[in-house]
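# nightly structure sweep
# worker-07 picked up a monomer target from the shared queue
# config: single-sequence mode, recycle default, output format = structure tokens
# input follows
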Amino acid sequence: MSPAADSDGVFTAEPGAVWRQRAELAADVGRLITDLLRDPRVPAGSKALVGAGAAAAVVHAVWRRRLVGAVEFGVLAVALRQLIADAGYELVQEHWRGTDAGFAWVLALGGVAR
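# output follows
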């Protein structure tokens, strides 16, 4: 059975496949972020913003001894969006290793136009 996109165009509606696909997408996004952080063509300010957001989340988690809250998650999400937007279409495409649907989702998340 071939995968069929659901309403957001990223995940299939096959029984049991949604969580596996979401885990794969999370891993693909993680690899993309790592690759973008290592790429010298991405502006240093965007990399610093991601680092500051990640540091704030870790400090909060350690200091409060609980999971990252909505505020920290939001700060990190904004920083990652800025990283993807500053990298631009060509770099994101160059580093993307996932599916076409996942790539479209990442572009939309980052506000990147072709």
